[in-house]
Amino acid sequence: MEKLTRELLKKNSRESTGRAAGSYVKVGMSSCGIAAGAQKIFDLLKEEIGRAHPEVAVERCGCNGLCYAEPLVEVSIEGVPPVLYGQVTPDIAHRIVEEHLGDRRLLNDHIYAMAVKGTSAP
């Protein structure tokens, strides 16, 4: 039997899901997020990411306490610090797909929180 290592777990995760381990986009879908238009943002991201970046999971998540900044979108992909974008409009959602996921470039004007080296996602 092969020794279980972190590398083996990552490899198996990628093979079983077809996605890069740890690559995700989460949309805040609590009542405050939905009231601010998060469902429209989720649907748009699910469609565009599914087409352009199928290796990235698109998920719903609950409230994180920044109701004033809804809709919130958390993005975590390899090679870029995890960030939380706030007040995401359809235009910003398109830019997240093209610039953050595609070009690995942060949308600095829309970041509400960012993980610091050695910590997890915001």
Query: What top-tier CATH class fits best?
Result: Alpha Beta
Distance between the termini: 38 Å
Main β-sheet description:
5 strands, mixed
Q: Give me the Rg, rounded.
A: 15 Å
Number-wise, the strands total: 5
Q: Any idea what the shape is?
A: globular
Strand content: 15-25%
CATH-scheme architecture: 3-Layer(aba) Sandwich
State the domain count. Answer: 1
CATH superfamily heading: Glutaredoxin
Instruction: Tell me, rounded to a whole number, the average pLDDT.
Output: 86
Helix content percent band: 25-40%
Q: Helix-strand pattern, N to C?
A: HEHHEEEHE
Point out poorly predicted stretches.
Answer: 14-19
Remind me, CATH topology? Answer: Glutaredoxin
In summary, what is this structure?
The chain is α+β, with helices and mostly antiparallel strands.
What does this structure look like?
The chain has 122 residues and is of the alpha+beta class. It has a single domain, classed as 3-Layer(aba) Sandwich (Glutaredoxin), CATH 3.40.30. The protein has four helices and five strands, in the order αβααβββαβ. It has a five-stranded mixed beta sheet, with helices on one face. Helix 3 packs parallel to helix 4. The protein is globular. The protein starts with 5 loop residues before the first helix and ends in an 8-residue tail after the last strand. Mean pLDDT is 86; it is low at 14-19.
